[in-house]
Design brief:
Blueprint lengths: L3 H5 L12 E4 L5 E6 L5 H9 L3 H8 L8 H8 L6 E8 L2 E11 L12 E8 L8 H15 L4 E6 L4 H8 L4 E7 L2 E7 L4 H23 L3 E5 L8 H11 L5 E5 L8 E3 L2 E4 L11 E4 L6 H9 L5 E4 L9 H16 L3 E3 L5 E4 L6 E4 L7 E8 L2 H13 L4 E6 L8 H9 L6 E6 L5 H12 L4 E5 L20 H10 L3 E3 L2 H13 L7 E6 L2 H13 L3 E2 L3 E2 L6 H13 L5 E6 L13 H15 L7 E5 L3 H8 L45 E2 L2 H22 L13 H13 L8 E2 L2 H9 L9 E2 L3 H11 L3 E5 L13 E5 L2 H15 L2 H4 L1 E5 L5 E10 L3 E8 L2 H4 L4 E5 L4 H9 L18 H17 L3 E11 L4 E3 L2 E5 L17
Parallel strand pairs: 5-6, 9-10, 9-13, 10-12, 13-14, 14-15, 18-19, 18-20, 20-21, 21-22, 23-24, 23-25, 23-26, 26-27, 27-28
Antiparallel strand pairs: 1-2, 2-3, 3-4, 4-5, 6-8, 7-8, 11-12, 16-17, 16-19, 29-39, 30-33, 31-32, 31-33, 34-35, 34-37, 35-36, 37-38, 37-39
Helix pairs in contact: 7-12, 9-10, 11-15, 12-13, 15-20, 16-20, 17-18, 18-19, 21-22, 23-24, 27-28
Length: about 950
């Protein structure tokens, strides 16, 4: 190794603060990973003194009781290129370190272009088994790749099984040998599908565990509980006790005098330190200026997580935003996660926990719905709405400013939570959209995820939310969420409507709907609503106003046994007696009849919903059934796809998801046909997604004639030119053609024609017949304005067309005429791809002209697109029939079109510097297609929050 004097001669490099990261560890706690610097000498010595002799022996292959001054200098002085050290810290102190030194083929110290490094770890014994080394390996590998290192070499003693497992389980391509009494490992640091799967599985387990620690604490302290009744802290304390919480409860109030105290019958203390026993969760309800003191008290005494109800943070302006950043940094320095600030609280209805650490005055009934909101007010409304309609919850979390714990964390938890069958989310912003889409898609494959998005049209993030703002339309975002299997609704009412049906009923096997009831008019309204939502209703069965509950039971029994329907809507109006008054008890009797028919139904389960008019007793009776049935997530009536064998590097998901069968629960009731049918339609679409897309999402095919290296070199050259604008550059025609050509996308040559003679010479080069087009911005892609002349077969025709254009539309320098060869006639389409700061790369398709520009008839998919995505893109626009032989026209070559879409997707996925591509028009003929115009824009690549090693959002 290099001596201290040799190291001091190495060039200094700036401190790489982008390597700093907060990570969630296997047990749900957090740690901070950062580069080791010269200021860390005392921390390193203190850390080493707390490591056991055995761990020191495993690290240095010999007894090594203490570090010498030379060792300390070597381990704290790095150039951040050839020698790098990272530390994992909690409370500012080291708990683990990792270091690499670049080496050459002979194993000697080296510099670039050597691309191998020797790596070694040391983890404090008290923190072994928490996944610290695995997290450090992810981060040191990312650092090494950034510095041009492609391989790690490590020597490990055979008895050091834990460290060998860290390397072998990482998922990297590796070689293993035994030399001189040590295991020699070589790891190829290029990410693989397996290494990415390992990383994401560890992320899921860690983040799910961190939420579980918050939802199921063994003890809770309420900090800020007032001595007098009232106030936020005292209210939470009362709610916590009223819920029947099974753990230990403590009240904390710094204003208490010395001596024993009690509040609401539980011990009260001046600080967490005075409690004298472990506290898992602290609910903080003190003024914002006193929160740092409370956080320090919690962190120094082992509290695992915080629910910060206090306001006065990012929602209040610039000063509050800085206060919020400081809060997150302080909590994470102690390894704690935060719900809030400005939070409403958390609820867990599990019988073994019964936690209501929130401002909700009533504990919800236990049930199968998991609910997350970012707004306390919306949380109150949703809790009230679900309670009013008899729905139960498994857990609830209202995150406020969601500075730390977010909807993504809850998706990680609910994914394999056996107590949750349906996930309901109210989101005002999405901090990491790519990750959200990935997690939502995985969760939706096993249980429904229903989302209502607030602040859809404001164009900015809500106060207190630090997130990228999307530039794409709300409708496009909805399409992309649906692509991930998310059930996207527009209102909180629809959120509750869909949640009730999905939690209580099996998924429909198809769109066929039977309608029966005692009102012909209500049946017809339901029929129309089904058609509007794209369902296939059968002719309504009118039981007449004289129908009895027995008639309803018989009709529903027949419908459930009918193989020609997949779901049943029951419509009901009150019975009117002979004296004109509504008969008493009709609601309860009818509810019992309907439940009896459902319970006795043979064959595959079908969803049943009820539409009632002025029959509150019926709705109450239907919702009275218990919500605590031990059912699994709803599944389509046909048997689910066979479960694949679980791998150790993948989240296992619900243990018995493959064995669960559809279960009939309480029948949801709706006061309007439109609401019931809309909820049913969402279930039909989701079931279809589960059967088709989730079971077979397609693949990203490999194509010939793709030169990824050549494209990268061209991009680097263009962006590296001194004249290139650092904000980005739109490529010239030749560069755009060259770049696209690297991916097998041929753009028809376009030759400028500033004069009639130039036009004639261009035609001679291209060959007649040709097209003459204007490219002025106000005329581009607007053939309706007369800026295009086609099929010019002679020089005379070309000169005449040129004269007509310049006489009619303007001077040549204004029109910027060009000449192109003619191509086979077909349908003009447009293919686009763009990078959105919120959702990432989006691939879009539509017909050229008014269909896409005026009517917005475009389809969208996230990149990378699969072959199934490409096929769906082509078929999901409203004008798609024009591609498939509408009114006797010849069908066009859609396979060629789908291949073009996939090549564009691959291009922008491989090269994040490509921030926009537009191919317009793309003429799709019966055989083949022609790309007539192309625009490509390059810019420095935006940060990718979904790639690289695991990390929490930074503050």
């Amino acid at each position: 190794m290099q001596s201290a004097s040799e190291q001091s001669q190495q060039p200094e490099h700036a401190y790489p603060d982008h390597w700093e990261a907060d990570v969630v560890l296997r047990d749900g706690g957090t740690a901070r990973i950062r580069p080791i610097t010269t200021d860390d000498a005392d921390r390193l010595v203190s850390f080493y003194e707390q490591v056991s002799d055995e761990s020191k022996y495993y690290r240095f292959f010999a007894p090594y009781p203490r570090l010498s001054a030379k060792d300390v200098h070597r381990f704290t002085h790095h150039d951040f290129v050839d020698r790098v050290g990272l530390a994992a810290t909690v409370g500012g102190e080291f708990i683990a370190t990792v270091r690499y030194d670049r080496i050459n083929d002979q194993g000697r110290p080296a510099s670039a272009p050597a691309d191998e490094a020797e790596v070694a770890f040391l983890v404090q014994d008290a923190h072994q088994g928490r996944g610290v080394a695995s997290a450090l390996l992810e981060h040191i590998a990312a650092v090494a790749r950034e510095r041009g290192i492609r391989r790690f070499a490590a020597e490990v003693l055979p008895a050091n099984n834990k460290m060998i497992k860290v390397f072998t389980d990482a998922g990297y391509t590796q070689k293993r040998s035994f030399e001189d009494g040590a295991v020699r490992l070589h790891l190829d640091l290029e990410p693989t599908d397996r290494s990415l799967a390992v990383q994401r599985a560890r992320e899921q387990r860690a983040e799910a565990r961190s939420v579980q620690r918050l939802l199921a604490p063994g003890s809770v302290a309420v900090i800020g509980a007032g001595r007098a009744p009232g106030g936020v802290g005292r209210t939470v304390l009362r709610n916590l006790l009223a819920s029947g919480y099974t753990g230990r409860v403590h009240a904390v109030n710094a204003a208490l005098e010395e001596g024993p105290h009690h509040m609401e019958g539980v011990p009260a203390f001046r600080s967490v330190a005075d409690i004298g026993e472990p506290v898992d969760l602290a609910v903080v309800a003190v003024p914002a200026e006193r929160v740092p003191e409370a956080v320090a008290d919690c962190g120094e005494h082992g509290v695992r997580g915080l629910v910060v109800l206090s306001a006065g943070y990012a929602e209040s302006g610039a000063e509050g935003r800085e206060r919020q950043r400081a809060l997150v940094r302080q909590a994470r320095s102690y390894g704690m996660r935060i719900i809030g600030p400005n939070a409403f609280g958390i609820i867990n209805t599990a019988e073994s926990v019964r936690l209501n650490a929130s401002l909700a005055p009533q504990m919800p009934a236990a049930g199968r719905i998991g609910l997350f909101t970012q707004s306390g007010a919306i949380g109150i409304a949703l809790l009230a709405g679900l309670h009013r309609r008899g729905a139960g919850l498994s857990s609830f979390l209202s995150a406020g400013n969601r500075a730390d714990v977010s909807g993504n964390d809850l998706l990680q938890h609910w994914y394999d939570d056996p107590a949750t069958d349906v996930v309901l989310l109210y989101l005002e912003s999405i901090g990491n959209p790519r990750k959200f889409t990935r997690l939502a898609r995985r969760t939706a494959a096993v249980k429904p995820v229903v989302v209502v998005k607030g602040a859809r049209h404001s164009g900015s993030a809500p106060p207190g939310h630090r997130v990228p703002v999307t530039r794409i339309p709300h409708a496009t975002v909805s399409v992309l969420l649906r692509q991930a299997g998310v059930i996207r609704v527009d209102t909180v009412t629809e959120l509750v409507d869909a949640g009730l049906l999905l939690a209580d009923q099996p998924l429909p096997a198809g769109p066929r709907v039977a309608i029966l009831g005692n009102s012909e008019s209500l049946g017809l309204l339901t029929y129309d609503a089904c058609l509007t939502e794209g369902l296939r209703p059968l002719r309504p069965l009118d039981l007449t106003t004289g129908a009895t509950p027995a008639d309803f039971r018989a009709a529903l029994t027949a419908a459930l046994a009918d193989d020609t329907c997949d779901a049943v809507v029951v419509t009901a109006i009150p019975w009117v007696g002979e004296n004109g008054a509504t008969e008493s008890g009709d609601g309860e009797v009818l509810a019992a009849a309907l439940r009896s028919a459902v319970a006795a139904a043979p064959g595959p389960a079908k969803p049943v919903v009820v539409v009632h008019v002025e029959m509150g007793a019926l709705a109450e009776a239907l919702s009275a059934a218990t919500r605590t049935r031990p059912a699994g997530p709803p599944a389509p009536a046909p048997a689910p796809a066979p479960a694949t064998e679980a791998r150790a590097d993948e989240p296992a998901g619900p243990d018995d998801a493959a064995d669960r069968t559809p279960t009939r629960g309480p029948i949801p009731a709706y006061p309007a046909a439109e609401r019931a049918v809309r909820a049913l339609a969402e279930a039909v679409r989701y079931a279809q997604w589960r059967r088709q897309t989730a079971a077979d999402p397609g693949r990203v095919p490999e194509f010939e004639h793709i030169d990824e290296t050549g494209a990268a070199a061209l991009i680097d050259r263009i962006l590296g030119e001194p004249t290139t604008d650092t904000r980005g550059v739109t490529l010239g025609a030749e560069d755009a053609r060259a770049l696209l050509g690297r991916y097998g996308i041929e753009v028809l040559p376009t030759l400028p024609a500033p004069t009639p003679d130039d036009a004639v010479r261009a035609a001679a080069r291209l060959g007649l017949p040709v097209a003459l087009k204007t490219t002025a911005p106000h005329l581009r892609h607007r053939p309706d304005l007369g800026g295009v002349r086609l099929d010019l077969a002679t020089e005379e025709q070309l000169r005449t067309a040129y004269a007509e254009l310049t006489e009619t539309l303007g001077k040549p320098e204004e029109l910027q005429p060009v000449v192109q060869a003619m191509v086979p006639r077909g349908v003009d389409t447009v293919v686009r791809a763009a990078i959105d700061p919120a959702v990432g790369a989006v691939l879009s398709f539509g017909l050229a002209g008014a269909a896409s520009e005026l009517l917005g008839d475009m389809s969208h998919r996230l990149v990378p697109a699969t072959d199934r995505d490409a096929a769906d893109l082509v078929r999901s626009i409203r004008t798609a029939p024009l591609l498939f032989g509408w009114r006797g026209s010849a069908p066009v070559d859609t396979p060629a079109l789908e291949e073009l879409l996939l090549r564009v997707s691959r291009l922008v996925d491989d090269h994040p510097e490509i921030v926009a591509v537009s191919l317009e028009p793309v003429v799709v003929a019966p055989r083949g297609l022609s790309v007539l115009g192309a625009t490509v824009r390059l810019a420095p690549p935006p940060p990718r929050t979904d790639l690289g090693p695991r990390r929490l959002p930074s503050y």
